[in-house]
Amino acid sequence: MVKESFNNYLTEIRYPSTEERKKEHWDIEGIPYKVSNQLLKFDIRPMFAMDNDQSGKEIFVNSKADKISFETTDSWILVDTQELIEYFKSNNSQKQHLDDLIKDLEWNIILDK
User: Fold this and answer.
1) What's the confidence (pLDDT) of residue 3?
2) Where are the domains of the chain?
3) Which of 20, 61, 64, 71 is least enclosed by beta carbons within 10 angstroms?
């Protein structure tokens, strides 16, 4: 399960209430101890299959998540939620490749599994 493997990277873990999850769109809160000492909220929902054998993830503009995670076979890729939303707005885009996001976004962290 995604949540169980991601929580190995966090300390001081807290899960949202049902109401928080619905209204605020985050899945887990904690301190990513290998890269920060900040208490952060994360959107760790898994990606889903799209057309052409690609994977996608819906991003909520009203999310209270500080960071959004993308799971690959060998890493977790964390990006800043607000920076990602602004990136999509400024590029007038709804779809981007993850490799392009890593290259173009200022804030991203890759955690090896």
Assistant:
1) 58
2) 2-112
3) 61
If DSSP codes are grouped into helix, strand and coil, which group holds residue 99? helix
Q: Closest Cα partner for 35 from 98, 97, 77? A: 77
User: Quick check: 105 and 83 in contact, CB under 8 A?
Assistant: yes
- The backbone torsions φ and ψ at residue 100, rounded to the nearest 5 degrees and listed phi first, read -70, -40
Whether 17 has a pLDDT exceeding 70, the answer reads yes
CA atoms within 13 A on the CB side of 66: 11
- Residue 1 — pLDDT band, cuts 50, 70, 90? very low
Q: Kindly report the pTM of this predicted structure.
A: 0.86
Backbone angles phi, psi at 27, to 5 degrees: -120, -25
Which carries the bigger pLDDT value, residue 54 or residue 22? 22
Q: What distance in Å separates the CA atoms of residue 60 and residue 64, rounded to the nearest whole number?
A: 9
